[in-house]
Design a protein that fits this description.
This protein has 566 residues and is α+β, with helices and mostly antiparallel strands. Helices cover 35% and strands 22% of the residues. The protein has an 8-stranded antiparallel sheet with strand order 20-27-26-25-24-21-22-23. Strands 1, 2, 3, 4, 5, 6 and 7 form a 7-stranded mixed sheet that branches. Strands 9-8-10-11-12 form a 5-stranded mixed sheet. It is globular, with a radius of gyration of 24 Å.
């Protein structure tokens, strides 16, 4: 329920909202008051559920955005006002904060906007046992609204905040405690062989990533010849799920400069702003790649396959939008794959279920952005890597480099062994949310069936359970799915190069598998008026073509579906 604006404020507050992972908003809207309310409400929820004890310690950290320090101070004020001690872990990666909080069974508050531009920021709070899940959100929102009512109900004299929503008196944060950072570095130095990357020249693109020095340190101590490049004191947003041509061109320039000054590197690595998503590129000699470029980028969903194989995973969870090379490769390796809705909370819930089944020893997950999660403790070399069920960038970087080094091949040669599947994503912006929902309603039959297969014998098989054989649907339900298939084949038509539909999955949007191997996945954005499409195919040209056919204005497939179903 919307709270009335406090009489002492000279602006209209805009509450923070949950995204796919954590709270996000424009910096101008994340006033001290708004940060305070959200942190206070969330911690009260964790107290109320018995997740954390009263008067305990809460770990706080942040990324390198210009707004982060202020929001950290406001968050610390809320932590202290509830009677908790504040452990200031400083500017460290989100997974480093989470690892510390998990080890101490305490809550953690990470101030970060991840990969989004610097005019935005966010707050990500974890429970003592891991990330806040979707099942927690309703309870958190209720406690946040109670905290909001309390703060909005105070007089100007009684409030901690001035008319602009900023703290009247701001206390400094406690001195930085390096325990979280040191433990995170030790996690990898104790698990991977010292000297294991010797004779491997690696460029670390530092930009404004919070792990820029930490990552270089880990690689150097593991034996790599590390060259740090591109350090920036201005925040640079890097979205590892959407690397632009301009960003790749900059990496090309880094490689050329490094070659002139000591030798061509084998790889360039980096992360997004809060260092929970990796960026890994191989660097090849001149003339190796058809386009004349030397830097080869591997998308995060494919990067994760290498990590899963390096860790010898026996069960995995990935979002349904991931490149279907994941499904193909893990099936070849007899690894159970659980597909989830998009967002780390869903992946984490699946990891919990896989671990709880008691059948699997090496449970992992990852997202299309490359962030990798471990759902169980996994032995690597002579040591055990403790479970870290939150996105991490350092593990996938190290696993890919070590896998190539141990096999005596280049990083690019290692990637050549993956299934040759290519992806592309696109969207139509300012697409009405109501229209997106109407399209889904017209394409998804009612009921609990998530995935069906249309086999060559004309049957419709329920493939919703990954751990059991598909079974034929009853006649009425089968006919309902056939009608949806016919609608889709009318728009994804043979004259556009589409084959007949082999499977449909409606876990999160509508994912269409064609008999010729093409894949098209329609999904509305979770927090913006956008309709997205993801495509996979056996060639990059075809994946690009599928997206182009879908988003073309004004008569592409998505617009045709809008006119037909809304």
């Amino acid at each position: 329920m919307e709270q009335p604006k406090p009489s002492f404020l000279n602006y209209t507050p805009i509450p923070l909202a949950f995204g796919t992972s954590g709270l996000r908003g424009l910096v101008k809207d994340i006033t001290d008051l708004e940060a305070y309310i959200n942190v206070k409400g969330t911690l009260r929820y964790l107290l109320g559920t018995g997740d954390i004890p009263a008067n305990g310690t809460v770990v706080i950290a942040g990324d390198l955005r210009p707004s982060t320090d202020r929001i950290m101070r406001a968050s610390a004020q809320a932590i202290g006002d509830l009677g908790f001690q504040v452990e200031n872990a400083g500017k460290i990666p989100t997974p480093a904060l989470f690892a510390r909080a998990l080890a101490n069974k305490s809550a953690g508050v990470m101030v970060t906007g991840s990969h989004i531009p610097f005019d935005r920021n966010g707050i990500k709070i974890n429970k003592s046992g891991g990330e806040v899940l979707k099942t927690d959100e309703a309870g958190i929102i209720a406690e946040v609204e109670k905290a909001r009512a309390e703060e909005y109900g105070r007089t100007m004299q009684a409030s901690l905040f001035d008319a602009s929503g900023m703290l009247k008196h701001t206390a400094e944060l406690p001195a930085v405690d390096r325990a979280a950072e040191d433990a995170y570095v030790s996690r990898y130095l104790n698990s991977f062989a010292r000297g294991g990357l010797s004779a491997m020249r690696v460029l670390v693109y530092q930009h404004s990533a919070v792990a820029r020095d930490l990552l270089a340190r880990i690689l150097r101590e593991l034996g790599a010849d590390v060259v740090s490049v591109g350090r920036s004191e201005t925040f640079i947003p890097i979205d590892t799920e959407n690397i632009t041509d301009d960003q790749l061109e900059r990496l090309e320039e880094f490689a050329a400069t490094a070659e002139r000054n000591g030798g061509l590197p084998q790889a360039i690595v980096s992360t997004d702003g809060d260092s929970d998503r990796p960026l890994v590129t191989a660097v090849l000699p001149d003339g190796t790649m058809p386009n004349g470029k030397r830097v080869r980028f591997l998308p995060g969903d494919l990067l994760g396959i290498v990590v899963a194989e390096y860790l010898r995973a026996d069960a995995a969870a990935v979002p349904i939008s991931a490149n279907d090379a994941v499904e193909r490769r893990l099936r070849e390796r007899n690894v159970l794959l659980e597909k989830t809705k998009i967002g780390s909370p869903y992946v984490i819930s699946a990891l919990d279920e896989l671990r709880g089944a008691g059948k699997f020893q090496r449970v992992v997950g990852w997202e299309a952005n490359g962030g990798f999660l471990t759902g169980s403790a996994i032995r690597v070399g002579e040591s055990k890597l403790a479970a870290l069920p939150t996105r991490d960038a350092v593990l996938p970087i190290l696993a890919n480099l070590f896998a190539a080094k141990e096999q005596g091949i280049s990083l690019s040669a290692l990637w050549d062994r993956l299934p040759a599947r290519f992806g592309r994503a696109g969207l139509i912006d300012n697409f009405p949310v109501a229209a997106s929902q109407a399209i889904l309603a017209g394409l998804i039959p009612p009921g609990r069936v998530i995935e069906v297969e249309f086999d060559q014998a004309g049957r419709v098989l329920d493939r919703s359970r990954v751990d059991s054989a598909p079974l034929p649907l009853e006649l009425a339900a089968a006919d309902d799915w056939r009608r949806r298939k016919a609608i889709l084949e009318n728009y994804f038509s043979p004259n556009m190069g589409f084959d007949s539909i082999a499977r449909l999955n409606v876990l999160d949007g509508v994912r269409i598998y064609f008999y010729n191997g093409d894949v098209a996945h329609l999904r509305p954005s979770g927090n913006a008026p956008q309709l997205r499409i993801y495509a996979n195919s056996d060639s990059q040209q075809r994946a690009d073509e599928i997206v182009g056919l879908a988003v073309r204005e004004p008569d592409g497939i998505l617009r045709q579906l809008q006119r037909a179903l809304t």
